[in-house]
Design a protein that fits this description.
The chain crosses the membrane at residues 39-65. With 76 residues, the chain is mainly α. The protein has a domain at 21-66. 79% of the residues lie in helices and 0% in strands. The chain has helices at residues 3-18, 22-33, 36-67.
Length: 76
Amino acid sequence: MCISLLLPMSAFALAASISPGPVNLICLSSGTHYPIVKGLIFVTGATLGFIALFLGIGAGLYALLTTVPLSPKMWF
């Protein structure tokens, strides 16, 4: 994967990770119910899982788009 694809994908992952969502709400709940060390372990795991998900989706979609030619005639 070249850098021209990795940078926009990383920027989108960052923007999506700081917006409110299910993982952020669970992290908030974990932070209020457990000590800081356990809360940070959970947040780290959730963040790494989120990054792995985006990298896998990005790599898979990139591979799919490079192998399957799409022409405008196929859209209709």
